[in-house]
Amino acid sequence: MSIKAFELVSAIERLKLMSDKAKTQIECLDVCGKNIYVGTNDCFVVHYSIEEKTHANGRVTFVTEKQGHKFLLVKKPVVQLRAASALNRIMVLCDATLTLLNMFDLEPIVTGAKIKGVACFCINENPVRTNPFSVEICVALKRKMIQLYTVTEDRLMLLRDVTLPDQALVVGVDGVFVCAALTSQYSMVDTDSGLITDLFPIDPDQVRPIIKRISKEEFLLSGPNALGIFATSAGVSQRPPMQWSDGLSAVSFVHPYILAMNDEFITVHSILDQQQKQAIPFQGGVFLGDFDGRIFVASSREIYALVPIPFEKQIQALLSDKRVTEALDLARNANKTGMTRDKFLKMFKRIQQQAAFIQFSQQNFEEASQLFKESSIDVREIISLYPHYLPTNVNFTRSVPPLHEIADINQLSRSDDKVKAAYKIFLQTFLEDIRGVNQAYGYKREVDVALLKLYAESAPEKLSELISVDTGCDLNDCVDWLETYQRLHALGLLYQIHGENDNALSVWTRLVDSKKDDPSFPGLEFVVDFLARLADHELLWKYVDWVLDKDEELGVRIFTDRPINEALTERLRPETVVDYLHRFPRAVIVYLEYLVFQRRLEKEKYHTHLAVLYMESVMKLMETNNVRQEELDIARSKLRHMLQMSNLYRVQLILGKAKEKSMHAECAILYGKLEEHEKALRILVHKLKDYGAAENYCVVNSQGKEAGSCKRLFHILLSVYLDPSYERRDTLVAPAMALLNSSVAEFDTVKVLQLLPDSWSVGLLSQFLARAVRASMHNSRMTRIQRMMARGENLFVKQTFIELQQDATMMSDDRLCAVCSRAFNNPSFVRYPNGVITHVHCAKNKYICPVSGKLFGSRR
C-alpha cells in the first residue's frame, strides 16, 4: 500500500560542468555538510556549495553555487568520490587509481599518496580504531585481494591484506567484517581471522551486485529474482527478503526506508514490513546515495534531493487510510531519526490515541482498549462519545486538533441496537479496568458517573458496590437516571452516601410499600439495619411506626442493634422505648428480653414487666381452644427460665397469677425464690411427681449460697419423701432410696438415720451406708494430712525466724535509709535478708529489695 514518504526536489538544475559539450555527464557524487562534489565521465571533479531552505509553506528548496573544479588529466570517468571531513580530504577513484584531494581547492596532496589497481572502495562506518583524525577504508583490488587502510591527511597506511578466491566487484565493511560480491557469489570475510563464509551465488551478468550497510554487522544485498536479501556478519538473515524491481542500479537506506533505483523508478520500501510504500518516476538515473540522513539522486545532467516527508504527515496519511498497524510501526521508529525523546513521546501518544479511535470505530475493542491505556488518554475523550454520560456540569472540550471525526456512538452504530450495546460493554469494561489507577486520576467523578449510568441500564447488580465504595457519583447527574431505570435501591444508597438520609429512607420505604421487584434490594431488614445505625434519632422516630407495622420482631431491632459506643439520648432511653412499644405487644417482649438477658439491666420494673408479659402470654394460650401443646410448652419454658434466672421481679405478684391457673412448676420456682423450699418440693413431689426436677431444684437453689445449704435442701426433700402424713407415702420409697444413693445429693449421715423409718432394713440401706462410711473415712484421713502439713509449715516458719534473729542489726544516729537516704526518727525499720535497711514506708514490697531488686520470696 502506498504512502508518500519522499518528495523529489531539484538541487542543481541542468548542471553545466565545464562546457556546453553534451558528452559531459555525471558519474558519481558525494555530499559532506554544505558541500557537494560531483565526478564526471570526462575526469572532472566539481565542487559546489549547497544550502537547504525550508519555506513557510513547508516547501524545501536548495541554493547552490559552484566553488571550483579539478581536471584529473587521465580523461577517464570518475568512478567514486568520498569526502572525509575530519581530514579535509576527498578520496577519488579514477582510472583504477585511488588518490586524495584537498576538500576546498581540489588539489592533490603533496605526498602524492595513491593506490593503483583499485576496482572499488568503501569507508568503514564502524571503525575498529577510534582515532578521530583518521578514516578506515576497504579497497578491492583488480586481483583476488582486498586491503584495509587507515587514511590520514597525507598518507594511506596499509593495515592488512586479505586474499579472496575471486576478484571482489563490490565491497561493504563494518568493523572487522567485509561483505564482498565476488564474480560468482557473495561472501562474508572476517579480516581478523581470515575466515570466509559463502552467502549465496550471484550472476553479475544477470544481477548487478549491490551491497548496502544497514546497521551494525548487517548488510542488504541484491539477489536473484529481484530480491533484496539481508545478511549478518554470521552469515544468516534475520529479516524476510525484500522484493525489488528488475534492473536495479543503486540502493540507499535512511531509517526506516530503503530506496532502490532502476532505469524508470525510484521505489521506497519499509524495512519494518519489507513492503513497497512509494514509487517515484525517475528516468536515466545514474547515482543514488544517502549522506548523513540526506538522499541525493542524479541523472546524467541534473542532481535532485529526495526530501523526506515529515513523519507526522506520513503517519497521518496512514491513519487517514485506516492503516493503523503501519502507522504505529512507523511512529515507533520515528525516534531513530534524531527526534528528542520528549517530542517523540508526545507525538507517539497522540498517534496511539488516533489509532485507538480508528480501532474503536471498527469495533476492534481489544486493540482500542490497549491503545487507549498505553497512550494515557483523557478518559473524557471516550466518555464524550456516549450522549449524556458525562456529568452535565463538566466543562469539557474535545482535543484540538481533533483525534477523530466521530460524533458519537449513534453515528457508529447506525441505529443497530446490538452494535450500540457492544460499544457500551466496551466502555464499561474499559472504565472498570482503569478505575482507581493513574489513568483515571483527576477524573474519578466522570468515570463513576459513566459507570453508574451503564450499570443502571444493563448491570444493576453492580450498582451497590460502585456507590458504596469510595464513589465519585454526585446527585445532580444520577438521581434522574436511576429513577428512569427504576434502580430505587441504588438511588437510596446514593442519597445515603451524600448524607441525605431522609431521602434515602423515603426511597426505601416507597420500594417496600410498592413491592416492586428490585433484585439488589435486600428488603425491610436492610431498612431496619440502617435505622439501627442511624445517629439522627429524630429521623429514626419518623420511621419507627412504619417499620413496626410491617414486622414487630424485625422492627424492634432498631432499638436492640444499636452501636455499642453510641451516646445515650433521652429519645432512646429504655423507659422511653418501653413506653412507646406498649402498642406493639410482641415488640415490647423482645425489647424487654434484650434489656434483661443481653444488657442485664438490674431494674425491678423491667424484670417484673417481662415476667408479667410471659405469664399473660401463657395464660392466654391456656385459655385458647385447640392450641398446640408444643407452642404452650415453649411459652411456659420461657416463663420458667425467666423466673429461675432472675431475682429482681416481684415474686408475690407472679405467684398469685400462677396459683390462679394451677401452674405448679412455676409455683415451685416462685416458692424457691421466697425461700419456702418445703412448699416448692412438696409441689414437685406430690403434685408433679417429678423427682428428677426435685433433685435438680436442690442443686440449683443451693448454688451461690452458704456452705451447708445444699445438705439442708436435700434433707428437706428426703423429709418430704418420708413424710408419714402423706397417704401415698409407700409410692415414695423408691424415689427416697434413689435420692440417698445419688452421687449428687449431700447428706449428714446422722440426721438421715434419725429420719429413716425403723422398719427399713440394713440391707435396703447398704449402698448409702457404705458410701457414707467411705466418705467419713476419707474426710478423717484428709483432715489428718492437712494437720500434719500445717505442722510442717509451722516448723519451717520457726526455723526461718530463728535464722533471721541470729544476725544483729546495729542502729545508730548515723545510719541512713538505703532508699531515701534520711535518718531514722523512730525505732521501727525494715531489714531485708541481704542487709538493706529502710524506713517502713520506704519498703513498698517486703519480698523485693528496693535497692538491688532481688526477689527473696513470694506471697503464699
TrEMBL record:
Domain CNH: residue ranges: 23-295
CHCR repeats (start-end): 562-726
Gene symbol of the encoding locus: ORF164218
Organism superkingdom: Eukaryota
Any one cellular-component term (Gene Ontology): membrane
UniProt source species: Arion vulgaris
Name of the protein in question: CNH domain-containing protein
Keyword Cytoplasm annotated: yes
A GO biological process held by the record: endosomal vesicle fusion
Cellular compartment(s): Cytoplasm
PROSITE patterns attached to this UniProt entry: CHCR, CNH
Keyword entries, A-Z: Cytoplasm, Protein transport, Transport
Keyword Protease included in the entry's annotation: no
